[in-house]
Structures are given as C-alpha cells and as structure tokens.
Amino acid sequence: MLAYIVRRLLILPFILIGVTFLVFFMMQFLDPVQRLAAYIKSPEELKNLSSEDIERLIKRYGLDRPLWVQYLEWVKKIVHLDLGWSEVAHQPVKDAILSRFPATLELALFAVFPVIWVGIWLGVISAVHRDRLLDQVIRVFAIIGWSLPSFVFGIFILFILYGVLGLFPPGRLSLWAQAVVSSQEFKSYTGLLVIDGILNGRFDVALDALRHLVGPIITLSYLWWAFILRITRSSMLEALNKEYITTARAKGVPERLVIHRHAKRNALIPVVTVAGMMVLGLLGGVVITETIFDYPGIGRLAATASQQLDYPLILGITLFYGFLLVVGNLIVDVLYAIIDPRVRLE
Amino acid sequence: MSRLLEVLGLKTYFFMEAGIGKAVDGISFYIDEGEVFGLVGESGCGKSVTALSIMRLIPPPGRIVEGKVIFEGEDLLKKTSEEMRDIRGKKISMIFQEPMVALNPVYTIGFQIAEAIIVHYPDVSWDEAWERAVKMLERVGIPNPRRRAEEYPYQMSGGMRQRAMIAMAMINNPRLLIADEPTTALDVTIQAQILELMDELKREFKTSILFITHDLGVIAEVSDRVGVMYGGKIVEMGDVFSIFDEPLHPYTYGLLSSLPKLNEEGKNRLYAIPGVVPDLLAFPEGCRFRDRCSCAFLKCEDDPPMIEVKEGHWVSCWRYAEDV
Ligand SMILES: Nc1ncnc2c1ncn2[C@@H]1O[C@H](COP(=O)(O)OP(=O)(O)O)[C@@H](O)[C@H]1O
Ligand code: SF4
Ligand SMILES: [Mg+2]
Predict the structure, then answer these.
(1) How far is the CA of B267 from the centre of ligand 3 (A)?
(2) B3-91+174-320 fold
(3) Are B3-91+174-320 and B92-173 in the same CATH fold?
C-alpha cells in the first residue's frame, strides 16, 4: 500500500510539469501584450503604462525570447506563487485565489459527506429493492434531482429558506459576523469560517456561517446525490448478479452481509471515480449555486475573470485547478487501491 | 447406508415474459451417505438449477413450484430462510465451475474461508477461524498456506483457486457437497488432481457428493450412481456400471456412442446425437427428446413414465413400457 502511494507520488512532479506545459501552451494563443498582463504587480504600474513601457516590459520579461526560455522564466515565477495582478479582484492573483478558495472548500466539505453518504445508502437500498415500490420512489426523486437545472432548484430553495422561512440567508456571513471576523482578535486558522469560529470560541460566528451554508448545501446535495445514487444502484445491481454473491449465500452468509460486505465493496469501485469527479467539481467552484446564494467562492471569481478577460486571473485559476485535479486524482487512485487489491498489487 | 438426500418430484420454473421456462420439471433422485451421485447432461439441461434448488438459491424470476427436498429426514423446502441459511455452508456446501468468478475479488482467500466459519459459529474468534482456514488450505494441498491465505483470488492459478474453493466448502465438515462442474474450467492434469483431492476428502470427512458435469468421462471416474438429465428431467438413472454397460435411454445411448473409448486420447468429442437442445420454451410435448430420437414412435407424444427396468436402474422411455 505504502509502496503504491510512494510510486504515485514519484510521478506527481511529472504530471505537474505536464499541467504547466499545457497552460503555457494555451498562453501562446495570447499576444505578448495580453501575456504581459500576467506580469503587472500593482494597479499603479498598470495606470502609468505607456507603449514604450510596454516594449520595455516585454523585453524585460523576455516575452520576445525563445519559447523554452520563456517557459523556464514563467515556471520560476509560478513556483514562487507570483501570478501577477488581478484587475477584477483588485489584488494579486495569489491572494485572490487564496481568499476565495477557503469559502469554496468549506462549502464543498459540507456538501460532500451528506451527498456521498446518502447517495450510496439510497443507491444500495434502491438496488436491493429493485423494481419494487421503494426503488421506484427513490428513482423518481433521483430523476427530478438529475434533470432539474440548478438555477431553478437553487432559486426555489432560496425562496423557501430565505423568502418564506427567513432562516437561511444568502451570502457567507451576516454583517455583524463579518465585522467580528475582520477584527483583530479573530484569528484565521483555516479560512473555513465554521471551524475558525469554533477555534476562536465564537460559536455565534460559526453558527452564522453554518446558516449561510445550508441553502447552497441543499442545492448541491440534491443535484449530486442523484448522480452518486445512479452509479451506486447500477454497480450494485451488477455486483449482486455476480457468482461470488451466490458463493457467499451458499456458504451461509446472512443477507445483510451479502449486501454490505460482499456486494457493496465491489460496487463502490466505480462510485469512487464519480465521487472524485464530484469533489473536484465542487472544489473548482459551482458558479450558478454561488451566484444564486451570493456566496463568494472561486467559481464566481473564475466566471468574472473570464467575462472581463482578466488573463492573469484566468491563468492563475487554471493552474490552480490543474493542481487540484492532479492531487484529487492521486487521492482517488489511493482510494481505489484501498478498496480493490487488484489495483494495489498491480 | 442411510439416505442423506432425497429429491422428490422437484419442479423449478422460470416465469418469464416469453413464457414459463420449465428448467427442472419433476425430477426425483436420492443420495446415500458417503455416496457420489453424478448428474450428467448437455449444457442447459437443468443441472445447475437442480443444485441451486436444493440450496434454495434460485434467483427470480425462478421459483420452486413443487416437490420435496428431504435432507436428513426433513424437507428443506419447509425450512424458514434463517434455518436454511444455517444449513448452507454448514451441512450442505457448494463449489462452482469458475473459481475466479466464484470467489470475491476484493477479499483474501483466508478471509473468505474464515468467514464461512464465523457465520455459522459466531463464538469462534477471527484469529482462530483464520488458523483453521490456514490448516484447511494446507489440507487441500496448497503450499505455503499461511502466506497464501493472505492472497487475493487473482493472485492464484486456476487449480489453486479451486483448491481454495474446496477448502472453503469443506471447512465446516458438511454432510453433502454439491460440485457444479468443478473441473470443467481446468486443464486435464489439474482436473485429475482436483478429482483425486475430492475423492480423498470424501473418504476423510465422510461427505456425500452431488457431482454435476457434462463430461461422461469424469462421471465414470467419480460416481457411484448416475442420473442422466435431458430437458429438465432425469431420463435415466442407475449405478455407474449399468449406465455405462447397458444404457437404456436413446439419449444416454447417443451420449455414450459419441464418446471415444474412455481411456483413449482426445477429450474433444462431439456428440453425434442429431439436432440441438431446443430452447427451454420450445421442447416438444410428451417425451422431450422426441424430435431428436431415432426410435420415436406414436406413443412418445405422451409423457413417458419412469420405469424400473432392473433393480435400481430406471429409465423414462416408452420403449420399456410393458403394455406398449
Ligand atoms: N436466471 C434464469 N432465468 C431464466 N432462465 C434460466 C435462469 N437460469 C437458468 N435458466 C434456464 O434454465 C435452464 C437450465 O439451466 P442450467 O441449470 O443452468 O443448465 P446446466 O445443465 O447447463 O447447468 C436453461 O435453459 C436456462 O436457460
Ligand atoms: S420415449 Fe420415445 S422419443 Fe422419448 S426417448 Fe423413448 S423412444 Fe425416444
Ligand atoms: Mg450449469
């Protein structure tokens, strides 16, 4: 197991180099002036830019030099997390990403566990009760979740939770809580407000952050658990048809264990892939849900950056997302290996 | 010898949209203690369904519609599902054709054998069950059993897997072992080793065996008595010598005459019986073998009765009915 993880970690740098290659390649579609945008460090610099300055900067950053030199220079920069200045966010790209990502991470963390747990649980029930009433009911719910556009469902949830009940407002924090969090005494340990709130002993802040999370979580969960459920159900049905299930029954294994020990373990293998995709999708930001609930996540940042052609920010987020994908895939692979010995000992 | 298992008029049908598939249609046979009963017939004739019916593991849309399965004097078809679960793997166990797919790929061999103990004897600790699993692996001739127990099915060869499967089936010392084509997927030398192992274990554990195969050569080697199946029915039944020396049913006759001399080379025989086994829903009325039988006559449009031609030698064919 350890050897497997080490082996996977050893190829990690190569994959990362591949990712930077890819992003760099995409950058070549921009002209030097557009690319130069990624080197501007502050708004002042931007304001006082004359066309000679631009020429000078192009020379200075070597944007007219051979490609491989440019690539090495650029990699050197990103290794130091120097990703340029973002016009849209009015701060360096690094800070823009790092300030939004915790919000996205917090939302993803709270959404992922209910989604996966409920999705697998209902998927197994659905498969075991195949074509009977319980299965039909679960599937109808799943199909609705599956086919409902998130902007419709999200607005509906916002309307119920906030409009009707007035309990769960949009945004990330209430104004008073925002003031607390921005104050000197409030230490930011993780950037996740619920956890920071608890660590600072400000349970009221934690609760406030949690209240703001409810709407997006429900929206994301409902859309995603249908996805997990479908995969679980079909792979569970497949597993239940396998001969080793007959073997298990033939040796007197109780039905509960036949399902949860013998079939489920095998059925989870494809679920891991889908769950991994889902987590990565959530971490990359969920533009529509974030927009509806006015939640300051990375998805909205990326959307704004694209709309306003903020190249440094787009490139920064692309790199960041590439990095996430690589790490995420590594985790998925390790999970595979835990579940399926054939992968581990390959 | 006392009677261990008696199957009486067992009918197992599959209720499908296209019609009712009478996979097993009124078969009767018995197995005495310490005996090997061979069930032989072409693929699709209902051997596996018979085995799964005894275990009460018929999947929907299949259902046992009639009959009795008397085991140790009690009808298994009347047991509750929990009683039945406790019988499976403890008093009756089963091995299958393809141990690669019959073993769970994500659990170790040792775990799967130990589990067979734990589910019947919850008081036994996992450590002890594991020890017993290792001992059993050793007994079935797996070298390095302690290390092998930690391995997964895909790490073993076909022969080793089948040995592991046998270890799993024998771990609780069952009274009856149902072996459904246990050697079909193996090559000839391994096949011989597995048969020998089963023979040893049968003597050592005094287990009766229901041995299922489509291979007459194997049947001749292992069985005390034989049932020949065709189209969901047993068409002929008797001790192994009667069946091989004086086959009565035209189907048995066909099977045997298409068999090269048993101790000669060339196991790839082709059955010389004309025609093919029809689809389950397309068997003729009356004798199911009628459209392939060269002796068929008018009477054969009715169901032929089971006739005891000689003591212990039964045949279901109108040719042996006295009043015809
Ligand atoms: N799950 C099932 N659904 C429908 N028909 C089945 C099913 N299992 C077996 N049958 C039918 O029952 C008949 C006997 O099958 P089986 O007992 O597996 O034959 P074999 O003698 O080769 O073991 C076949 O015609 C098969 O089509
Ligand atoms: S009953 Fe008739 S058709 Fe059937 S095997 Fe006998 S002779 Fe042939
Ligand atoms: Mg079969």
Answers:
(1) 19
(2) Rossmann fold (3.40.50)
(3) yes
